């Protein structure tokens, strides 16, 4: 019985040892396979880096402001008896926009003119009598004063009549009419907005560090957001004398010719100014940059060697220093040399030493002045 038990234990031990040996060899073989496994090359696009001359520039968001802009209002109370303009029309300085009912003032003017004529006749008689020594100097002075009072009264009524005729204070473009015939207006009630938009101002801000780079008379380009057509050019006409204590920015004002009225007050615009001398940079598409908190980098395609010394086409991660952006492009100040092939798409799936396969049939956008496409 004991002999049989011993034989059984020996057989189990041999079986377990055989299975363990097989499993160990399988694990070793799998580990060797995993160690020698090479992932398939990643498909990427590339661009051969080259140096370009980029002018040093400043870009800022601006707002169009009318050279002159007011809301024309009623100077005196009254009922609107005539409207002489159309909404959105262009008017010249002094053009009549509306008239208030002035029949009462006209009647007062007629009476005042008659009183002035009587005062003038009395003055003529008094002067004749005074020259003859018939009346006193005091009586003569009283008649002269009455004549002046009558003249002042006529002038006052005529000024009131003129103020009841609402006129354009300067040439410009009208807005939307805000009155109706027969409407009673109080003094100061709005009639219509009026804006002088040719030329027109564009106001924008720059940082206090950039302010010394600007000068009055310098040129700038203005692009109108959402409006087709070429950009506009203008000149810097004023630099604010103070810097905002909250933002540490200084306000700049430029003046642009606007004969066709493309710019309207309140419009959002993008401004660009060329300052300083052009710089030599390597321009790459923004999709080529791998942005990271520890530093920005690109992947350069080059010939590498695998663990066993076999050559393959792979990438080398290269940290770079970036400059300004222009459209789809970003300026690389250092880290990339002209002639190097830089990966421009597929960057997110790469790491240092990854194998790649270059396919440049479809390239990412690389336009310094792109325009949005309609969906």
CATH topology call of the domain at 42-54 and 278-358? conserved putative lor/sdh protein from methanococcus maripaludis s2 fold
Rg from Cα: 43 Å
Strand content: 35-45%
Largest sheet: 6 strands, antiparallel, barrel
Instruction: Give helix and strand order, one letter per element, not per position.
Output: HEEEEEEHHEEEEEEEEEEEEEEE
Question: Oligomeric form of this entry?
Answer: single chain
CATH architecture of the domain at 42-54 and 278-358: Beta Barrel
Query: Which structural class fits the helix and strand makeup?
Result: alpha+beta
* Number of continuous helical runs: 3
Task: Tell me roughly what share of residues is in helical segments.
Answer: 10-25%
Give average pLDDT, whole number.
83
Name of the top-level CATH class of the domain at 42-54 and 278-358: Mainly Beta
What would you note in describing this structure?
This protein has 375 residues and is α+β, with helices and mostly antiparallel strands. Among the domains are: 42-54 and 278-358, Beta Barrel (conserved putative lor/sdh protein from methanococcus maripaludis s2 fold); 58-66 and 195-274, Elongation Factor Tu (Ef-tu), domain 3 (Beta Barrel); 102-163, Helix Hairpins (Orthogonal Bundle). The chain contains 3 helices and 21 strands. It has helices at residues 2-36, 103-131, 137-163, and strands at residues 42-48, 51-54, 57-73, 78-83, 90-91, 96-100, 165-167, 172-174, 184-185, 190-207, 219-224, 232-239, 249-256, 268-274, 279-285, 297-305, 311-319, 321-326, 329-334, 341-345, 356-358. The chain has a 6-stranded antiparallel barrel with strand order 3-10-13-12-11-14. A 5-stranded mixed β-sheet has the order 17-16-20-1-21, with no helix packed on it. Strands 2-15-19-18 form a 4-stranded antiparallel β-sheet, with no helix packed on it. The longest helix has 35 residues, at 2-36. It is elongated and about 175 Å long. The relative contact order is 0.18.
């Amino acid at each position: 019985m004991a002999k049989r038990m011993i034989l059984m234990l020996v057989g189990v031990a041999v079986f377990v040892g055989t299975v363990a040996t097989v499993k160990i060899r399988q694990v070793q073989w799998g580990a060797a396979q995993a160690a020698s496994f090479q992932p398939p090359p990643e498909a990427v696009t590339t661009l051969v880096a080259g140096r370009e001359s980029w002018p040093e520039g400043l870009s800022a968001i601006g707002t169009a402001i009318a050279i002159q802009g007011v809301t024309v209002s009623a100077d005196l109370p009254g009922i609107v008896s005539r409207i002489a303009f159309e909404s959105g029309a262009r008017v010249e300085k002094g053009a009549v926009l509306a008239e208030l009912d002035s029949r009462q003032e006209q009647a007062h003017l007629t009476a005042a003119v008659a009183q002035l004529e009587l005062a003038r006749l009395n003055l003529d008689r008094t002067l004749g009598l005074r020259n003859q020594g018939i009346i006193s100097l005091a009586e003569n002075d009283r008649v002269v004063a009455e004549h002046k009072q009558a003249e002042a009264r006529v002038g006052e009524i005529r000024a009131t009549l003129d103020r009841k005729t609402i006129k354009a204070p300067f040439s410009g473009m009208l807005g939307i009419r805000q009155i109706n015939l027969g409407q009673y207006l109080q003094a100061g009630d709005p009639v219509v907005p009026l804006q002088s938009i040719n030329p027109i101002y564009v106001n924008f801000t720059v940082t206090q560090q950039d302010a010394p780079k600007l000068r009055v008379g310098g040129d700038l380009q203005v692009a109108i957001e959402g409006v087709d057509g070429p950009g506009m050019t203008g000149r810097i006409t004023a630099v604010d004398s103070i810097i905002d204590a909250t933002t540490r920015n200084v306000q700049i004002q430029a003046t642009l010719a606007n004969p066709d009225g493309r710019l309207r007050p309140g419009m959002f615009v993008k401004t660009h100014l060329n300052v300083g001398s052009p710089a030599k940079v390597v321009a790459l598409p923004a999709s080529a940059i791998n942005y990271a908190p520890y530093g920005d980098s690109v992947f350069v395609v080059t010939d590498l060697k695998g663990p066993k010394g076999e050559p393959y086409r792979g990438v080398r991660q290269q940290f770079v220093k970036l400059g300004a952006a222009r459209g789809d492009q970003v300026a690389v100040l250092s880290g990339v040399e002209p002639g190097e092939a830089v990966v421009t798409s597929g960057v997110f799936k790469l790491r240092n030493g990854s194998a790649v396969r270059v396919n440049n049939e479809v390239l990412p956008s690389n336009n310094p002045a792109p325009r949005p496409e309609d969906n």
